[in-house]
Amino acid sequence: MDPVIDALVTGFERGTVTRRELIQKLTALAGVGVGAAAATTAVSAAPLKSASINHTSVLVSDMARSLEFYDRVFGLKLLNEDKANKIARLGTGGKVLVSLRVEPPAGKIDHFAIGVDGFNREAVTRELQGLGLTPRENIEFGFYVLDPDGAPVQITGI
To answer: Alpha-carbon distance 142 to 127, whole Å?
Structure first.
């Protein structure tokens, strides 16, 4: 059980486990015993707690035509725009669901973003580096890592 407690404390110190989660998990360990420890280890194995798909980025050839399509078909409204980089972010209720970028090849989904609970760039960077990954940042993919096949996975808050 000691490795489980050590992992929880380390996660708390690194900022990937909240104080509430730490207390809840320690209480569960104390109340239930070794069976709970095994379950907690399985749940806590990943250092970043994914909470949602934040958005998907699509390359388009005609921004006006794409804006009209996503509004007419899905009711997605223009939330913000980066005209200099030919990027439009669409969504509902203030939440971005789809990002459009004018760039060939049109029709390609060039990245998706995973929303992480309690996102903190410095803490996430340390966790990724601890896993042997090198986080990168650019205008196309934001703050991201490459998956094993080279697909960009943006990491953001929820």
So the answer is: 18
What CA–CA distance (Å, rounded) separates 31 from 147?
38
Residues 75-91 have pLDDT tens digits of 999 999 999 999 999 99
| Contact yes or no for 37/4 (Cβ under 8 A) | yes
Instruction: For residues 56 and 100, give the distance between their C-alpha atoms in angstroms, rounded to a whole number.
Output: 9
* Cβ pair 114, 153 in contact under 8 A: yes
Cis peptide before 105 (omega within 30 of 0): yes
Domain definitions of the chain by residue range: 2-44, 50-157
Under CATH, what is the fold of the domain 50-157?
A: 2,3-Dihydroxybiphenyl 1,2-Dioxygenase; domain 1 (3.10.180)
Strands 136-138, 77-82: pairing kind: unpaired
